[in-house]
Design a protein that fits this description.
438 residues, alpha+beta, Beta-lactamase, 3 domains, six-stranded antiparallel sheet, five-stranded antiparallel sheet, 14 helices, 32% helix, rod-shaped
């Protein structure tokens, strides 16, 4: 309805308006005449009060709303073995997992020293590379020429039933390939031969290894040979996670231990004993076992949990019952970490979160304009904020605010819109509520 600009317009409105029965007799006619005279005097000047009332700013509506409730997700349940020991740390997920994740994120079985078996060969590689560094992952390095005494190691370890790799007389190969032959199949004859090449004798290597361990703060690790076949080669889960970090930071070792196999001169094709490579992001590092109940795996994993960048995990499992069960223990704890992340729906398209009501009695709902979800870890609390503004047009579908959900570093936002038409006030309401107009 448009506002009247002239007295004639207002007269037309009166003609259209419902009428009360006319007062009877001469007194009624006089009252009507008096009313019209007063009204005409008030409206004089072709608009006056009517024009003001019809165009004055309307009062703000009342918004009654409440931020939707968002419950946290289900708590994560990390699956750790009941026997032996396990420890792992996580880098890259501190905003989700907390600042302590890069220390000890999961553990079981305590931090006592245990035999590390062929994980000792990783120490051999690091100590040799400390003295004879390779310049990057693809650097072949210096040529290692094995002596007749080195080739005799094949027979020595063969009769002991220890893992070995072929080393024909006169074998020469780049240091990179020699390290790969030691690390991937865990060839003990190559471990001793490399230690001799690097330091002159295995005894000299042991002295260098112990010095290197002290320099790197691995004070709970004991090395007595280059191979790990002696049960006196021991370490704690805490030291081994630190060792794993050092190994993963060395480009050559990280690249070598991520390979499934490699063909080298003399030894032929050698295969990695780490069967978990490629499973749940596992990309290193070293297996080791001395038989029943001493199966070990020092591992790294780049685990994609859907938060942009993969989690960088370093862990160790010591004292597994078998090779396969050790792999299963590691796979289960990694899977439980992955399962602890979930997409949590926090808002639904069309969900009513309030109403908007005008002083003249028109009302519409406030609803979410889309579905919303956040990626969260475990039962991370979800906070919700609601911001609204005064509508400009009061039209169906007009955006009048937003809701933001926050869980850890993740946020999701959905617009809040009017659902339903908000009618403008009638002229009669404007004329009879001057105190509420702007």
């Amino acid at each position: 309805m448009t506002a009247p600009d002239t007295l004639a317009d207002f007269s037309n409105l009166l003609e259209e308006a419902p009428r009360e029965p006319a007062p009877a007799g001469r007194g009624g006619r006089i009252a009507l005449i008096v009313f019209l005279v007063v009204l005409l005097a008030t409206l004089g000047g072709g608009g006056g009060y009517v024009w003001w009332a019809s165009s004055a700013a309307l009062p703000a509506p009342t918004v009654t709303s409440q931020a939707p409730v968002a419950s946290p997700g289900a708590p994560a349940s990390l699956v750790v073995p009941a026997d032996g020991s396990l420890r792992l740390s996580v880098d890259g997920g501190e905003q989700y997992l907390g600042p302590d994740a890069s220390g000890v994120f999961a553990s079981s079985g305590g931090d006592d020293a245990r035999p590390i078996a062929s994980i000792a060969k990783l120490v051999t590689a690091l100590v040799v590379l400390d003295a004879h560094p390779l310049q990057g992952a693809d650097d072949p390095g210096p040529t290692v020429s094995f002596t007749e005494a080195d080739t005799d190691l094949y027979d020595r370890f063969y009769v002991q039933g220890v893992t070995i790799a072929k080393m024909p007389d006169g074998t020469r190969m780049p240091l990179h390939d020699a390290l790969a032959t030691m690390l991937l199949p865990s060839a003990s004859n190559y471990a001793v031969a490399i230690a001799r090449w690097g330091f002159g004798s295995e005894g000299a290597y042991v002295d260098a290894a112990r010095s290197w361990l002290r320099d790197n703060g691995l004070n709970d690790t004991r090395i007595v040979d280059a191979t790990g076949i002696d049960a006196r080669n021991t370490s704690t889960p805490g030291d081994l996670v630190a060792l794993g970090r050092l190994a993963a930071a060395n480009p050559a070792i990280a690249a070598i231990t991520s390979m499934r196999s490699i063909s080298v001169t003399g030894a032929g094709t050698v295969t990695n004993t780490n069967d978990l490579l490629g499973t749940l992001g596992v990309d290193g590092l070293k297996t080791g076992n001395l038989g029943d109940g001493t199966f070990n795996l020092l591992f790294t994993a780049s685990l994609d949990v859907g938060i942009g960048s993969p989690l960088k995990i370093t862990g160790v499992r010591l004292g597994g019952a078998t090779h396969d069960s050790t792999d299963g223990d590691v796979a289960r704890v990694l899977q439980s970490i992955s399962d602890g992340f979930h997409d949590l729906q926090v808002g639904s398209l069309g969900e009513t979160i309030g109403t908007i009501t005008t002083p003249w009695g028109s009302e519409a709902e406030l609803v979410l304009a889309k579905n919303a979800e956040v990626r969260t870890w475990s039962d991370t609390p979800v906070t919700v904020t609601l911001d609204t503004v005064t509508p400009r047009t009061y039209a169906d579908g007009e955006t009048v605010g937003s809701v933001t959900w926050t869980a850890g570093p993740q946020t999701a936002t959905a617009d809040v819109k009017i659902a339903g038409a908000i009618e403008e006030p009638t002229l009669l309401w404007r004329l009879t509520h001057p105190g509420e107009l702007g």
